[in-house]
Amino acid sequence: MSDLVVTLLGKYNYWLCVILMMIGLYAMIAKNNLIKKLVGMNIFQTSIILFYVSIGCKKGATISILEHGAGHHGVDPTHYINPLPHVLMLTAIVVSVSTFGVALALAIKVYRKHKTLEEDEILMQLRSE
Amino acid sequence: MTNHYPALIVVLPLLFAFVVSGVAWVKKSLCFPLTIVGMGLSAGLSVCLLGRVATTGLVEYRMGGWETPWGIGYHVDYLNALVVTVVTVLAFINLIATRKNVVEETPEKAGAFYSLYLLFIVGLTGIVLTGDLFNLYVLLEVASLTSYALIGMGNGRAPMSALNYLFVGTVGGCFYLLGVGYLYIMTGSLNMVDVATLLPQMYHSSAVVMAFIFCLVGVGIKMAFFPLHMWLPNAYGFAPTAVGSLIAPLMTKVMVYVLIRLILTVFSVDFAFVILKMGDPMVWLSSLAIVAGAVFALAQKNLKRMFCYIIVSEIGYMMGGAWLGNNTGMTGAILHIFNDAIMTLCLFLCAGSIYYRVRGLELDRLKGLFSKMPVTMACLVAGALSIIGVPPTCGFFSKWYLISGGLEAGQYGFVAALLFSSLVNVVLFFRVIEISYYGDFEDHHGHGSSGEAVMEAPASMLVPLLIVSIGLIVVGLYTGGIVNHLINPLLLKQGFLG
Amino acid sequence: MKAIGLIIVVLAGALLLYSTQDFPFWGDPASPAGTHTATYYLTKAFEETSVPNVVTAVLADYRGFDTMFETGVIFCAGLGCFVLLRLSRSRDEDSYYRHVATGITLHIKSAKIPDVSSEFERIDTLWTPYDLIVKTVCRLLAPFVQLFGLYVIAHGHHSPGGGFQGGVILGASVILIAISHNMRTAIGRISEKTIHILMAVGVLLYSGIGALCILLGGNFLDYASLSRILFTNEIEARSLGILGVEVGVGITVMAVMITIYNNLSSDGRLDEGL
Amino acid sequence: MIWELDLAILILVIVAAIGVIQVKDLLGCAILFSAYSFLMCLLWAIMGAVDVAFTEASVGAGVSTVFFVAAVFRTTRRTKD
Prior knowledge:
The complex is a heterotetramer.
Chain B: H1 5-23, H2 31-56, E1 59-62, E2 73-76, H3 78-97, H4 99-105, H5 110-129, H6 133-152, H7 158-187, H8 192-198, H9 206-223, H10 231-238, H11 241-275, H12 279-298, H13 303-323, H14 327-358, H15 369-372, H16 374-388, H17 394-409, H18 412-438, H19 459-477, H20 479-493
Antiparallel strand pairs in B: 1-2
Helix pairs in contact in B: 1-2, 1-5, 2-3, 2-5, 3-5, 3-11, 3-14, 3-19, 5-6, 5-11, 6-7, 6-11, 7-9, 7-10, 8-11, 9-11, 10-13, 11-13, 11-14, 12-13, 12-18, 13-14, 13-17, 13-18, 14-16, 14-17, 14-19, 14-20, 16-18, 16-19, 17-18, 17-19
Chain C: H1 2-19, H2 32-49, H3 54-62, H4 64-85, E1 95-99, E2 105-108, E3 120-123, H5 132-154, H6 163-180, H7 183-189, H8 192-215, H9 227-230, H10 234-265
Antiparallel strand pairs in C: 1-2, 1-3
Chain D: H1 3-22, H2 26-46, H3 50-74
């Protein structure tokens, strides 16, 4: 029984993260509105960022800014959180906001031509062309 | 300076991209020459790098001078050097050939266009040269983001296809990132060589297997592997001419390179073929891709869309060859990356010059073009022969390796699919040639506005086109050299015994 | 579609959940990710770069090559939005002018545009009355927001922050002006041409510092080789190099945020905006 | 890092995510998405990723909401799902 609790406490973060990912993926596949798909894409991306940040987590450690003077007499790495996933995720956030901007621009361009953002209506217009 | 070649191949186009986009606001006419200089330098340096790698076998470079597991390092072997040369040289040729298309289709934003062009090449060269898994993701996004913007520049259905490509492509990128995350959580490293040394102890862990599957799915989406190919024909078909002929030959091939790199360097051949036993199902899927691509191509009435479906089928060739699990098949796959890039560029450049004169690419508008544009059509025939696989064009040799690899591995379904698709290609191209040779020319400008008469494309398009089509044959004749000096040493070093 | 989506999602989710079983526990200090490379960064970063914020040190130095392309991605996004949306001003459009004192709107059909004096302001069809309080508060707030942005860029060595966050804040201050007044005011302060040149200058600064390192004999982005022209030791040179690239990132990000906002909110016409 | 707080906010994030994809108005979607980003930012701050949280606060909850509203303003609020 206590094993189960340990596993539960040790993994629940990853599980909820997976659920979040699947919400995003579902919105991308099943939603009809282009902006809704875009939001789903963004949720998917942020959940992956959450996954990476969870990797970097360390129990009993503090944020990875060295205390004043700590650098001069040796740093105990177990006292500080792993900085590498944070670095990677800064880049990933930038990528996600760039993609978001370009996607919104494309959505506006689609709206200029079709006057709608619903995918089925756009497909209908394209078929009747 | 010679030590810095790997970095300079990526960095020089990057610097020129920023300069071009700034200069566009001061003096527009400088944009194109600057782009040519940047691209040309990059192409020249990558040829030099290929020469160095051919003699030394391996060129390493450390960004910022940091040792590799801590910093980002380049680890250039035969495969990287070969693919990067193809990418930069073909992009350079395409840049010259499509200048008139760009002037015509995007006159206002030429500066921004060329800047994005260079950034796209930066992305691709970076993907090919890097030895770091996360750096690969960032550059993948550079290449993808520029390609979304470039495709979306087109008119009509282009923005919608670009948006679809964006959705699908981002999911692909995210899956790859997730796979890298799985590797990172298990090994704590991001450097390809370092990960490869840490992995063997945990080959049987489900997380590593999932990491492989996620990387495979992510890269598969980006390369339009069969069940995930839906975005490709629209995105490439509706893109502006210069963009289509840039992205179509290069993007998918680079993604095939990424897959081969992941199998050979990161996960190792043992893991992919012996432990996971992924070989058979992937080869069957590839055979399906080849057949499906060929069948869809038969149904198309537009030249460019037909080429797009041919690409889907060619991806099947390369994936199948890579997954055959023997030396010959892998040689065929790597050779086909090289050859297919040249063939596809040849076909798309032909389509570009036809579009420039005829204003349409529907098959029935090609009637009588042989008499009007003899050189362009001759190049189209050369490209077609290579796609079909007629000696002495280069397409024949890679197909030969693929087929003999398939026979060696006992994958007769794959061999049958290859032969079937060659047959379909014969039908496809003979239909095109028949229409354009025997049909009577009809002036589609119509409605009194006679416009300029259809004639041969301008010399700035024809010369690069001729170079590419002569290249098809030259590369074919030098196949033996490429295989012996570049591909065999690589496979030997990676412990690929077959 | 919904059913197919649900099936794919459930399958993928089950696979993901299944594969978590071999993960190290969440927050486990002994996990490979927490020990392999992280230990090196935490113990060596301060010695080698004299930057207490390890994230900044890794971001701009150890993995500075990634960050350069991250800035490149942002640059692509700005250029992409411009390329996709910006409409050329070739066709003559009707223009509207509003007399500020009386609120009378003039509709001018000819292409000739009279000089805009303080009595008239150029507007679009979508004119909405401004709120004086909002306008004044935002104008007063903007310099402080910008000051904070500069602080975030400059203080990234010692506290969370850096070029990217600071650049976004700087960009947001201009967007604030564009929202509270109108976009013409914001473009009057910082023109489209300036924004585009700044966008290129920022990334050029970053990659230029990298290229300078090659010319000075180091590898690409090896800031230690800058010590020869900065007259300091290698460690200080790394710290200064990090500051230099952070400034470059800040400039580009600011310019790109403004470009994207301008093009999105005005549908590429760069007129009144929201 | 306090795991009770972490769990509570994670559940709120999931609720916000479901809300974002279910709401039938794009402007509401933009505002809920901003709330989602802000909760995410809190979550990262709790996990000790202050730099990432700072970026998300300025980008996710700040600027990209502005982009989103601008895009909705230039297109339409209407959505069928």
